[in-house]
Design brief:
Helix content is 30%, strand content 23%. The protein is an alpha+beta fold. The chain is globular and about 60 Å long. The relative contact order is 0.11.
């Protein structure tokens, strides 16, 4: 995988327009489909809503967002209501997030957030635009990257180091089971996965996850049996091969590679 851009001599009206063209061309030339391994994904025609690329073999769709700076806790997205409506449809695109550097004129990071990680809990409603704005009252949203588990960020390139195709495909496959779950069930599973990430250990105890009971209670105030729900989610993650049950209240997180 070559990380450099090719359009260094092309002039556009703005730096952002140039970066958009360079990054889209790079993705078209170098990024494979993480779902089926197709060596190239195809770019949609200009001005298509939502998705930018698709896989001609398996029909997975991808939206691309690019920036010079590393992505932080939030990623600006479109209309809040439209985003919430997308959560329940099958063709909600996966999200490609690309960092580039103009000094080295190339890609520094690229990862994909699979669409199964987009649940209501990771969508933040923004304040309506002021009445003096051109689109007065319009309500946008942010994607809360800090609420997406580590396993929901599949890197193609990390700190200028391309990751192996085998690793990308394996990490993608690891969480596909979430697509079989309903939206609310996925939300619970993802939150428990976040709790496991926060523990920061490959092997952990049930009590380590119980320590997040108050946090989960705030997220789901109508659930009065949070500990039972935690146990249930751990059993699902075990049955789906995400965790191993070691015994006597101990679990082990399976390797991500």
């Amino acid at each position: 995988m070559k990380l450099g851009f090719e359009e260094s001599q092309t002039l556009y009206e703005s730096a952002s327009q140039s970066a958009r063209v360079w990054t889209e061309r790079w993705v078209k030339d170098w990024v494979f489909c993480p779902n089926c391994g197709n060596p190239r994904i195809t770019q949609y025609e200009t001005n298509r809503p939502v998705a930018d690329f698709f896989c001609a073999d398996c029909s997975e769709e991808y939206e691309l967002k690019s920036t010079k700076a590393k992505f932080g806790a939030r990623v600006l997205d479109g209309a809040f209501r439209a985003m919430c409506a997308r959560l329940v449809v099958d063709n909600n695109p996966n999200l490609l997030l690309l960092n580039y550097d103009l000094k080295s004129f190339g890609v520094t990071n690229l990862f994909v957030v699979p669409k199964q990680f987009f649940v209501r809990e990771v969508i933040e409603e923004r304040k309506p635009l002021a009445m003096t704005a051109r689109r007065a009252g319009w309500i946008g949203c942010n994607i809360l990257l800090n609420q997406i588990p580590k396993s929901g960020k599949v890197f193609f390139v990390r700190d200028r180091q391309p990751q192996s195709k085998e690793s990308v495909l394996a990490q993608w496959k690891r969480t596909l089971f979430l697509r079989d779950e309903g939206l609310e069930a996925r939300g619970w599973l993802i939150e428990v996965m976040n709790c496991v990430d926060s523990i920061g250990k490959q092997e952990f105890q049930l009590d380590d996850v119980y320590a997040f009971e108050s946090t989960l209670s705030q997220l789901y105030p109508n659930n009065r049996h949070v500990k039972q729900k935690i146990r249930q989610q751990l059993q699902v993650l075990r049955d789906r091969g995400y965790l191993d049950f070691v015994g006597r209240g101990y679990y082990r997180l399976r390797s991500q590679g």
